[in-house]
Design a protein that fits this description.
The structure holds 2 protein chains of 2 kinds. Helices cover about 35% and strands about 25% of the residues of chain A. Chain A has 11 helices and 12 strands. An 8-stranded mixed sheet of chain A has the order 6-7-8-3-9-10-12-11, with helices on both faces. A 4-stranded antiparallel sheet of chain A has the order 2-1-4-5, with helices on one face. In chain A, α2 (about 85-90) packs across α3 (about 110-120). The longest helix of chain A is centred in the middle third of the chain and has 18 residues, at about 195-210. Chain A is globular and about 65 Å long. By secondary structure, chain B is an alpha/beta fold. Chain B has a 9-stranded mixed sheet with strand order 6-7-8-3-9-10-12-11-13, sandwiched between helices. Chain B has a 4-stranded antiparallel sheet with strand order 2-1-4-5, with helices on one face. In chain B, α6 runs parallel beside α7. Chain B is globular. The two termini of chain B are about 15 Å apart. Classes of the chains: A alpha/beta, B alpha/beta.
């Protein structure tokens, strides 16, 4: 792992304008990622994980809008550039494996044709060596082999493949143009444990090969412990805690992160369930102050009125919690 | 002891093709029994394609077995008619995987819960029906005021899944077939739903068949476990023993692949052999043959079940020094 910063997200804000009001789905998120680093983004449904991925790809559709902020990939801010340039940047700079990607393959077109389409749509003009179809085919087959599929998959249809294989095809497509950042949104949520492990090991291997940074979105903390270097916990559109995986699992600081870790089943305490009481807040009517305060076991007076600002603890952990701002 | 539900040598074969009959054995000679006297939670575990959902469909009577029989309280469920059939429908309830697609989006929660009340004539009056709803919703940990009168899209996945459980509970079932009830629910809410399920067994005496691929949750809710692979029972027994000391190479692979939320416990180093693409029928031999790291020549024959301990059996030739037990006797070694 080297220390070149490959992705910087600065104060990213996204809102959805609905009839019932403005929902702040992403409320000032800051994040930095180096080449080769793997970040896990966890949170409940509706916490803004997928919105963040879509915002990075600039794929937020109305009524949603990116209000402000920067997404700097490899030195270029993606937010202000023209739509055609963004089209080129997708897949060649930043790739996205959406949730349930395996169901997005076209059932009546061969896998190979879909891969070539992807190259044609997103390749840079600066790469003339892939112009010929043979070269593109060669590149696709290489990508398929690197995700442990036979190159004969190139000529197959989606229905001939199992779920895990389809998911690996999607990973192969995402690495075709060697992007700097790969965002995987719950890539294994529909797969069983053994296939899940295979898919995750595949992502791990290809990201090492091409030296890309990976953002893994999900709510499975177990998967995070196995796979990522850093974990970011999201709640109501904000990053509650960001720290390396070891600190997160051995010594979580934010009360929400603590509750998340505690709710995980393990083999020591059979039959003990520690759910998180209460419900995730509706984004349209966020509670005042810290969004987590109605569910927080350590709630203080200040939490109800004032929103905590991000603080950095020694060791590079970032937190948004009054417990730590007042002490520091 | 009388059996609540009994599967006797059940096989289910799906055939397709008009001229070239291609068949897939989804379930191969499975026998199980749940006792009437003591409610228990039994897990049926396996990866996709292992036949676990086929098993659920068979238990609920949605499809009929190709051979073998399924008995509910001693009667073949496909021979039930009239009153008895209604009773079976009422006493055996299901909770399915996807809490987003099982509700009619145009019905409010009240309406959804009224349908079974009217169908089975559970309530004498409207206020009685209302009381029943409130009671069931409270039992699954929902505040009736939060959910009654709302439409499904206004509720979270966890709430919807609990409404499913409440709907089943209102009918006072004897058996609940839960097919992957938490796999589409947020991790932070899983614990709540599992606790609700467990509570059904302890407080209301409901037996549960918990179908899942997630062995960690299986460990927490169930008493016994049956591991399926491509329609065959690989290993079965007491959940404590099977999860903590798995014997069959397939169970070991499954347990080795659980992403433990523990940074000191990494995925095993063992390379996994990719799943064979060809899922068509190889009717003889161990189904795990192609992927097994300990594969032997004799694995080309069907391995019987070997009883390893009082509460554990595995279908693998690695254990051929142990006594063989007939598939019908499998339930005897599952603890309640």
């Amino acid at each position: 792992m080297n220390d070149t910063v490959i992705l910087q997200i600065k104060n990213l804000k996204v809102s959805y304008y609905t009839d019932a009001g403005r929902a702040r789905a992403l409320d000032g998120v800051n994040l930095t990622l180096s080449a080769g680093e793997k970040l896990g983004l966890v949170g409940e449904s509706g916490s803004g994980k997928s919105t963040m991925a879509l915002a990075m790809m600039r794929m937020i559709k109305p009524p949603g809008r990116i209000e402000s902020g920067q997404v700097i990939v490899d030195g270029t801010d993606l937010i202000p550039i023209a739509e055609e340039e963004m089209l080129k940047a997708r897949l060649s700079k930043i790739a996205y494996i959406p949730q349930g990607a395996m169901n997005s393959l076209n059932p009546v077109i061969r896998i190979g044709a879909q891969m070539i389409d992807a190259i044609k749509a997103h390749k840079d003009e600066s790469t003339p060596d892939w112009i010929s179809t043979e070269d593109m085919e060669k590149r696709c087959k290489e990508a398929l082999t690197s995700v442990d599929l036979k190159s004969s998959v190139f000529r197959m249809y989606a229905h001939e493949l199992s779920g895990g294989m389809k998911q690996r095809v999607c990973i192969a497509i995402s690495i075709l143009l060697r992007p700097k950042v790969i965002i995987a949104d719950e890539p294994t949520s529909a797969l069983d444990v053994v296939t899940q492990r295979q898919v995750m090991e595949t992502i791990d291997r290809v990201q090492k090969q091409i030296g890309a940074a990976v953002i893994l979105i999900g709510h499975d903390m177990g998967l995070m412990a196995q796979f990522v270097d850093k974990v970011a916990v999201m709640y109501a559109g904000r990053l509650m805690e960001l720290s390396n995986v070891k600190d997160m699992f051995t010594d979580p600081k934010h009360p929400y992160a603590q509750a998340l870790i505690r709710s995980l089943p393990n083999l020591e305490n059979k039959g003990v369930f520690n759910g998180i009481p209460g419900m995730a807040p509706a984004l349209l009517q966020l509670p005042g102050g810290c969004a987590f305060h109605p569910r927080c076991p350590k709630v203080m007076e200040i939490c109800r009125t004032q929103r905590p600002e991000p603080t950095t603890l020694p060791g590079g952990r970032t937190l948004e919690c009054h417990l730590y701002t007042t002490k520091a | 002891m009388a059996a609540l539900l009994e599967l006797k040598n059940v096989t289910k074969i799906y055939s397709r093709g008009l001229l070239t009959q291609v068949s897939t054995t989804a379930l191969n000679n499975v026998s199980l029994r749940l006792d009437d006297a003591e409610p228990t939670v039994m897990t049926v575990a396996g990866e996709s394609g292992s036949g676990k959902t086929t098993l659920a469909m068979l238990l609920l009577g949605f499809i009929s077995p190709s051979s073998g029989n399924i008995y509910y309280k001693g009667q073949d469920i496909h021979a039930l008619r009239g009153e008895e059939r209604m009773m079976f429908r009422r006493e055996v309830q299901a909770v399915f995987q996807d809490p987003f697609s099982v509700f009619n989006p145009f019905y409010t929660v009240d309406h959804l819960l009224t349908v079974p009340i009217n169908r089975f004539k559970l309530a004498k009056s409207k206020s009685d029906a209302r009381d029943k709803m409130v009671e069931a919703l409270t039992a699954v940990g929902l505040r009736p005021g939060d959910v009654l009168g709302r439409f499904p899209h206004q509720l979270s996945g966890g709430q919807r899944q609990r409404i499913n459980v409440a709907r089943a509970l209102m009918l006072r079932p004897k058996l609940l077939v839960a097919d992957e009830p938490v796999s589409m629910v947020d991790a932070s809410l899983r614990a709540n739903i599992l606790e609700t399920l467990r509570g059904l067994q302890t407080n209301y005496g409901v037996s549960i068949i918990y179908i899942t691929h997630d062995l960690t949750t299986a460990y927490h809710v169930s008493n016994s476990i049956v591991v399926l692979y491509r329609g065959c029972v690989m290993e079965a027994g007491d959940v404590e023993t099977v999860i903590k000391s798995p014997q069959h190479p397939y169970t070991r692979l499954l347990i080795d692949s659980i992403p433990w939320p523990d940074i000191n416990r990494r995925w095993g180093e063992t390379e996994i052999k990719a799943k064979e693409m060809d899922l068509s029928d190889n009717t003889t031999g161990c189904r795990f043959y192609a992927r097994c790291p300990y594969v032997m020549e004799k694995c080309k024959q069907d391995p019987p079940l070997f009883q390893l301990h009082r509460h554990q059996a595995a279908s693998c030739f690695l254990y051929d020094q142990h006594p063989v037990i007939a598939p019908e006797k499998l339930s005897d070694l599952l603890p309640v």
